[in-house]
Amino acid sequence: MTTAKPSNTAKRRNSGRSYNRGAITTKKVNNAIKREIKPAIAASERKIVLFNKPFDVLCQFTDEANRQTLADFIAIKDVYAAGRLDRDSEGLLLLTNCGKLQNTLTAPNKKTSKTYWAQVEGEPTDAAIKQLCQGVELKDGLTLPAIVKRIDEPTLWPRNPPVRERKNIPTSWLSITLTEGRNRQVRRMTAHIGHPTLRLIRYRIGDYTLKGIDNGHFKVITDGQ
């Protein structure tokens, strides 16, 4: 029994299939994903929402398992997350209806910096911090140089549930600024130097920060702010 091969017309039709990912559309061309950025919208129509995401909330508006999503906190239409924040991480998530801004904040070649506050197990040495700054070898390659420094414990909202700390092992806080966005990168970097991350908060994306935004709340940015 033989199986009919797809016609050249069908191949061409499939190679041009578009995938809608929020305000950015991607198109598969010759088995490669090409990002198609929608034209910039008028400043008067642009929406930027800064959300302080709580722990255990998904960065999407729907979920078949009835877990908490953005829809439980944000009732603004036609905005999409610029990048993601893991379910077990907290802090700044930016949503917008502007594809150009989404691309600026998420495209790897743009190298938009992001700052995270990480509570880690133990107290990293100067040598360990230097490793993070210079780059560490993960399974998906060497990380780019980062800005890493010790910080005092920041004043934060209580996490629910609380972080499980081991009584005989101290914890400390690091500020980590990256210009790339690999999956669970901060957690993997600190684990690599022997100091697992216990709590992770994203404080800054580019020029936008969490300042003045309570956990579970959002702020709408207008031009000029």
From TrEMBL:
Region (Disordered): 1-22
Domain Pseudouridine synthase RsuA/RluA-like: 48-192
Domain of life per record: Bacteria
SUPFAM superfamilies: Pseudouridine synthase
Keyword set, alphabetical order: Isomerase
EC assignment: 5.4.99.-
Pfam families: PseudoU_synth_2
PANTHER family listed in its UniProt record: PSEUDOURIDINE SYNTHASE FAMILY PROTEIN-RELATED (PTHR47683), RNA-BINDING S4 DOMAIN-CONTAINING PROTEIN (PTHR47683:SF2)
NCBIfam families to which the protein is assigned, alphabetical: pseudouridine synthase
Stated family: Belongs to the pseudouridine synthase RsuA family.
Protein name in the entry: Pseudouridine synthase
Organism per entry: Pseudoalteromonas prydzensis
